[in-house]
Amino acid sequence: MFFTLEAFLPLLLDSVRHVPGVVTGLTFMGAAVAWAASSWGQGHLLEHWPRHRWSWRVRC
Known about the structure:
Shape: elongated
Largest sheet: none
Oligomer: single chain
Structural class: mainly alpha
């Protein structure tokens, strides 16, 4: 589902809302960088904590 949204959301924003492609691209790039940074942080900064100590904080 993520890849479908990643493909069709820019098309929707361009054709329906008339958002410039640069704005859409920068927004998606910012989201990708934030995702990568948070994944890196979770993998490297929390590696010294046991998972059972912080897993209750991220449950949905």
